[in-house]
C-alpha cells in the first residue's frame, strides 16, 4: 500500500524571485536567473543588432538609397526577432518549467501575455 504525502507551502514573490515556506518550516528561494553563457549569447546578439541599426542610421544620415536602407532595416528586424525567439526558447526551457513545477500560474500568465505582445 502506498502512502500519500502532502506538503503545504507558501509562495512570497519579489522582484528577484520568490520564497517557498513549507509546512515543516523549511524555506528555499527560486529566483529568475539565467546562465552566464546564455546571457552572453543574448547580449552579443543584441550588440550586433544595435550595430546594424547604427549602420542604418548612418545610411539615412548620408542620404543613401532608400531601397538599400529598407533592406538593411529588414535584416536588423529579422535579427531582433531571432533574439526574441532565442529568449522565448530559453525561457520555456528553464523559467516556465520551474514555474510549472512550483505551480506558479502567475508567472505562466505573465509569459503568455509577453508572447502575445511579441507576436
Count every beta strand, where a strand is a DSSP E run of 2 or more residues: 3
**Main sheet attributes: strand count, strand direction, barrel closure:** 3 strands, antiparallel
Strand order of the largest sheet: 1-2-3
Tell me the series of helices and strands, N- to C-terminal: EEEHHH
**How far is the first residue's CA from the last residue's CA?**
50 Å
Count of all domains:
2
Rg is: 21 Å
Q: Give the CATH topology of the largest domain.
A: Methane Monooxygenase Hydroxylase, Chain G, domain 1
If you had to describe this structure to a student in words, what would you say it looks like?
With 119 residues, the chain is α+β, with helices and mostly antiparallel strands. The chain contains three helices and three strands. The longest helix has 37 residues. The chain is elongated and about 70 Å long. The protein folds into two domains: 31 residues, no CATH class; 85 residues, Methane Monooxygenase Hydroxylase, Chain G, domain 1, CATH 1.20.58. Strand 2 and strand 3 form a beta hairpin. The N terminus is likely disordered. It is 65% helix and 14% strand. The chain has a three-stranded antiparallel beta sheet, with no helix packed on it.
Topology:
Elements: E1 9-14, E2 17-22, E3 27-31, H1 36-61, H2 66-102, H3 105-118
Antiparallel strand pairs: 1-2, 2-3
Helix pairs in contact: 1-2, 2-3
Structure characteristics:
disordered N terminus, single chain, 3 helices, Methane Monooxygenase Hydroxylase, Chain G, domain 1, 2 domains, alpha+beta, 119 residues
Amino acid at each position: 500500500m502506498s502512502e500519500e504525502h502532502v506538503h503545504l507551502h507558501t509562495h512570497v514573490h519579489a522582484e528577484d524571485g520568490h520564497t517557498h515556506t513549507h509546512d515543516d518550516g523549511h524555506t528555499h528561494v527560486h529566483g529568475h536567473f539565467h546562465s552566464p553563457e546564455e546571457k552572453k549569447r543574448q547580449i552579443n546578439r543584441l550588440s550586433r543588432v544595435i550595430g546594424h541599426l547604427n549602420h542604418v542610421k548612418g545610411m539615412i544620415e548620408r542620404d543613401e538609397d532608400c531601397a538599400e536602407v529598407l533592406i538593411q532595416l529588414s535584416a536588423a528586424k529579422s535579427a531582433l526577432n531571432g533574439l526574441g525567439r532565442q529568449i522565448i526558447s530559453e525561457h520555456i526551457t528553464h523559467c516556465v518549467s520551474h514555474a510549472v513545477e512550483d505551480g506558479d500560474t502567475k508567472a505562466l500568465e505573465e509569459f503568455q501575455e509577453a508572447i502575445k505582445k511579441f507576436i
